[in-house]
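Take the subject:
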Amino acid sequence: MDQLISPASDQWAPQRRLGVVDGLGPHTTARFYAMLCENHRALTGGSSPDVMVHSISVQRRLMEAFSAGSFRPGHQEALQHLVSRTCRSLAGSGADVIAVACNATTIDPAIVAPTCIGMVEATCRTLRRLNVRRVGLLASSIMVSSAAYERGLGEAGITVVAPAPRDQEIVDQFIELQQWSPTRVPVPGEFLRVITKLGDDVDALLLDCAELHGVVDTEMAGKPVIDSVRALVEESCRALLDPVPDTTATADVVRCVAAANSVAGARLPSRWSPSRWRPRRPLRSASLVPR
C-alpha cells in the first residue's frame, strides 16, 4: 500500500510482463501461478509479478486423445498450432516473457516472442545447471509414453530413465489414489520400492505430476528431486528479473526443440477448430484426467 500512495517523483522501473499459456488442464497452471507469485515476491522483497494468462480453447476430440493416451502426429500438430497461436497473441498483447504451462508439447522456435519458455525447456536448463546426465522420470504413463522429455532432454545430452512397465503401473495407481482421496494417502511400500529402484540408476529424479509434489522428496529418493513446475517458475522469474539474454540457455532451447516441426504458419483442417463445441463425455480413467 505504501507503494501505491508514494509520491509521484518516486518512479518505478518498468516491470516486465509475463504471458502464461494455460495447458490442457487448469491445475498445473493454478499451481504455477501460485508458486510464481511466491517466488517473485521472495526475490523482489514483496512485489507481485505482472501476469497475463491465456487459456487454450481445446476441442473435445483433442482432449480425449491426450487423456486416452492416443496422441497421434495430427493431434500433436494441432496442439502445437494452438500453443504457437496463443504465444503470438500474448506477445502481441505486450508480454515480454511467455511461459507455456503445458507439458504435452515443446515450444515452437518459430514463435515471434522475445523469450518463450516451456516446461521441458525449463527443466532442461535446471538439469544442466546441476550437471545431471541421467534423470529418472516420475509421471503418469501418458506423459512417459509421449516421450516429450526423452526427446527434449536427449537433445541436450541428458538420458531419461522411466520406471519398468510394472513399476509404472504402481506409479499410476498411486497417482490416481492421490487425485481422488480427500486426505493425504499413506505412501505404500511398493511405491517406495519403485522410487528406490529408480533412484539407484540416475543422478536425480524428475517429477512431472502435481499429485507427486510434496510426496516424493530428496529424503525419500536419496537423490536430488526436480519439479517441472518449479523449474518453469524459476526460469520465468529469472527471465522477468534478469532481462540480459542468456546465450547458453537460448542454445539449450534450440537443441530441445530442434526435432519439433514448425507449425506456426500451418492452417489446420476444420475439424481442429478450437471453438468447435462438443458435449462433454466422461474420461475413460480417473488417473488420466489432464492436470
Q: What stands out?
A: Residues 73-92 form the longest helix (20 residues). Residues 37 and 49 are 6 Å apart (CA to CA). The two ends are 35 Å apart (CA to CA).
